[in-house]
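Usage

Read records sequentially. Each one opens with the input sequence:
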Amino acid sequence: MEKARWEDAWRFPASRAVTREEGERLWKAEVEKREYLKAVVFVTAGSNDFAAELVARNPGKFIAYAHHDPLLPDAAERLEKAVVQGGLKGYKLLGPKIDRPLDDRSFDPIWEVAQSHDIPILVHFGILGGAGGIAQHVNMNPLRIHDVAKRFPRMPIIIPHFGCGYLFETLNLAWACPNVSIDTSGSNQWMRWMPYPVDLATLFRKYRETIGASRIIFGTDSSWFPRGFTDAYLDVQVREMRDSGFSADEVDMVLYRNMAALLKLPETSGGKD
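and closes with the structure output:
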């Protein structure tokens, strides 16, 4: 019911299954038909090896992150291999899927690899899944990563979805840790379930006031076809930024330059205003 309501609200078509080969072709076409879309960043792609193959076959169009279980005994070595041999540019984690506190020292070898290669760690905190999903977990609160961010101050950390319900905690985390950025991805439906009114304009304004536009990163959560790249999210977020007082330069930072800096890409304009 929630999924149907969300699809209807954004007027998204129903999803359909595609093969890996078809998905690769469709995403390549999404980049090529949009002049302002510099590349697609895959934060998950089925496996690190497949992600590396995608990048190798589509240089300049696809960027990918590693995504594997950090509880594996060789998790740090896998990340090293993914970055050095596979050319992957970051590491995606789902906090509520990891049944050990992320500030446990046993994860330090992973953070050491990330910091040594200067790659961002993208960690989902907050509620996970639709209605009936995960709402309580040891790694639910973004402040769980606070001590890690302090111990590894040169490791970029990205918190997606504006903190996904943990607005106060994410603002505090980002205020305390200058290596923490937030991303804006998705429909941010969690705003509907907050005990006080929250909208995109409020989120953009609060984060800009707290950490500045240079640590806000645009994201879409685009994932399936025939929807493809979610222009609707882009259009709404650009409008809300401008209405919230962001300058054209700040909008460009959010849409492209901030992420380009983290990924070591050319820091030219994203080309969409």
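Summary fields computed downstream for this record:
- The longest strand covers residues 91-94.
- The two ends are 34 Å apart (CA to CA).
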